[in-house]
From TrEMBL:
Origin: domain of life: Eukaryota
Enzyme class: isomerase
Naturally occurring in which organism (per UniProt): Coilia grayii (Gray's grenadier anchovy)
Reactions that this protein is recorded to catalyse: [protein]-peptidylproline (omega=180) = [protein]-peptidylproline (omega=0)
MF term (GO), any: peptidyl-prolyl cis-trans isomerase activity
Official protein name in the record: peptidylprolyl isomerase
Domain annotation PPIase FKBP-type: ranges: 14-102
Regions annotated as coiled coil: none
PANTHER family, sorted: PEPTIDYL-PROLYL CIS-TRANS ISOMERASE (PTHR10516), PEPTIDYLPROLYL ISOMERASE (PTHR10516:SF455)
Keywords (A to Z) from UniProt: Isomerase, Rotamase
Keyword Isomerase belongs to the record: yes
EC number, as in UniProt: 5.2.1.8
Length: 102
């Protein structure tokens, strides 16, 4: 957990989430950041639009919460990785802030 502030608990099943994130490899190298682009990322829980680690991690968050989500390879991109961006069998670390639920 990175920090908490005025959080409200919601059931996030089948809900669209709007969030800011930064994704890093275990060595600290950033591979993506909606925070740097100043553009929130949107996805719907339960539709397999994101990696399994996000499905499970974000579903446990509360509105307004900022959290660190660590995804082991089986919860991220596995043995394949994401060529040119994420190496095979990489553990990924995400700094995620849940901004809005729709």
């Amino acid at each position: 957990m990175i920090k908490k502030k005025n959080v409200e608990a919601y059931s996030l099943s089948k809900v669209t989430c709007l969030l800011l994130f930064a994704g890093m490899l275990q060595n600290g190298k950033k591979f993506d950041s909606s925070r740097d682009r100043n553009k929130p990322f949107k996805f719907k829980i339960g539709r397999q639009e994101v990696i399994k680690g996000w499905e499970e991690g974000v579903a446990q968050m509360s509105l307004g919460q900022r959290a660190k989500i660590t995804c082991t390879p089986d919860m991220a991109y596995g043995a394949t990785g994401h060529p040119g961006v994420i190496p095979p069998n990489a553990t990924l670390i995400f700094d995620v802030e849940l901004l809005k639920l729709e």
